[in-house]
Amino acid sequence: SKPIVAIVGRPNVGKSTLFNALAGENISIVKDTPGVTRDRIYADISWLNYNFTLIDTGGIEPDSGDVILSRMREQAQIAIETADVIIFLVDVRQGLVDADFQVADMLRRSQKPVVLAVNKVDNYDKFLADTYEFYNLGLGDPHPVSANSKLGFGDLLDEVVENC
Ligand code: GDP
Ligand code: MG
């Protein structure tokens, strides 16, 4: 069956925006709507000759608790268990934060292929230099994208399907 690609990352980094932009239609809800997002987190994506299923883990509801970090860890764990490739999404505007390191540690230990995408790079002249700090996550090359402006998708998807 088709490979599964999961988007993981902190709240508000743009997971749902990226998911919707890649899926090409609004099949995920951008704002959290408890009880509604559950069936809207999957999309079938085609890129070149590849087909894969994309999952927005931000729409996965936690079993318990609503502390952001524990919820993120739970979503990352589900991605590790189900996905063939993980897109780890971070936010160039907020920069590197501790929660990014914690999730990066989980992903690195899982030994699953991880593609690091740095979102909100709407303007390369302004933000590209700021993407280099994400090398510190130890997950390889940061791929600049703008989910809003649909920039950087080609390079990102090339890297994803190479790892499928
Ligand atoms: P999620 O919580 O990770 O699913 O994040 P959302 O997709 O809900 O996006 C959170 C906020 O970031 C929203 O206000 C989006 O409009 C904004 N956002 C998402 N992608 C981009 C982007 O590429 N550039 C900018 N400037 N804002 C973005
Ligand atoms: Mg979301």
TrEMBL record:
The residues listed in the UniProt record as binding GTP 1, with positions renumbered to this chain, are 9-16, 56-60, 119-122
Record domain EngA-type G: where: 3-164
What is the role of this chain? Answer: GTPase that plays an essential role in the late steps of ribosome biogenesis.
Q: How does it assemble?
A: Associates with the 50S ribosomal subunit.
Question: Into which family does the record put it?
Answer: Belongs to the TRAFAC class TrmE-Era-EngA-EngB-Septin-like GTPase superfamily. EngA (Der) GTPase family.
Q: What is the designated name of this protein? A: GTPase Der
Q: Please name the source species.
A: Anaerostipes hominis (ex Lee et al. 2021)
Region of the whole protein represented: 2 to 165 of 440
